């Protein structure tokens, strides 16, 4: 199943844009029932796989280091913003009745300049995301081999190169394969959650120098990239059966699934491994929990789940972002070279450029900085979704307002935190 990418623009620029006449001819006029084969299970797997594809494996140690015992609340707050955004994303998609995400919505509303900026910023965000997944992939595998300090980055680079090569051959995911991967990793994560919650002791959540409840808000902003992924469903819209009904059902369902999993893991893993160790070894926090629970078997199971999840996420993100660049280039908003395809119909310039950028970031950036940078981008992405829905009065305006305020307050707090102001 092909997955595409969502886009972003800077909301502060919107009032100053010269709004062109909307392209009314770009709206679909065919039946809303849809003729696609993607049903609820397949769509749910795409959304959940996009979020949990690398999210919890990458971010647990980061959020505990920021939020301490309030890590679970960070995932809840981030999830509420994502829920509001999912409602707005589904409403905008149904209103336009075509796939394409924010870039397409902005074009249809006549905000061409904002659409151009959105594509550039989101491509940066997806490059950061690939780097996060690659670093996490390498960290989990290097942990098994107990290799030198440079091994995580090296293995992450190898993963990008291999998966970029697959993309150059026109590789894509099948819905059935994605369902199997999602179910497999959820079973492993559920096992960790049940084992940890069975021996729950609130005292084990405590950290040295606890940050207080305010840490939950900063933590939610710091690891917001864990909720990136559900927006890809707006690009599968044309392939959904009964698409107008399905997308409104599956958006909140996928986000609630991620919220429940994230909160359960945030509460359970500290019952298996001391929080100090989770913070020190944040890149492989879940592997430590698996090893504490089942020894080498647990370590290998969690490592396998992390490798499958992050590898699939790297592949899907490269696939999506390269095709976003291809689409934008065809509309003359990026250099025409990005519209070129090889004999496998792969937009190879986009794959090579984005993969190369991700390799550089993997080599230069640590996990915390990569996660934080991606979180800033996707907070702006989701804030923009809500602004557009609010401005165009599409969907529930209360959800749009709450999502807008939540996303931009979180962005401001995160930037202040990065500047050591708070």
UniProtKB/TrEMBL annotation:
Keyword flag Transmembrane helix: yes
Cross-referenced InterPro entries: AA/rel_permease1, APC_superfamily
Keyword tags: Cell membrane, Membrane, Transmembrane, Transmembrane helix
Transmembrane stretches, start-end: 37-64, 70-94, 115-138, 150-168, 180-200, 212-230, 250-273, 293-314, 348-367, 373-390, 397-419
Subcellular location per the Swiss-Prot or TrEMBL entry: Cell membrane
GO molecular function: transmembrane transporter activity
Any single Pfam family the record assigns to this protein: AA_permease_2
One of the record's GO cellular component terms: plasma membrane
Membrane topology listed for this record: Multi-pass membrane protein
Keyword field contains Cell cycle: no
Gene3D superfamilies on file: Amino acid/polyamine transporter I
PANTHER family associated with the record: AMINO ACID TRANSPORTER-RELATED (PTHR42770), INNER MEMBRANE TRANSPORT PROTEIN YBAT (PTHR42770:SF11)
Name assigned to this protein: APC family permease
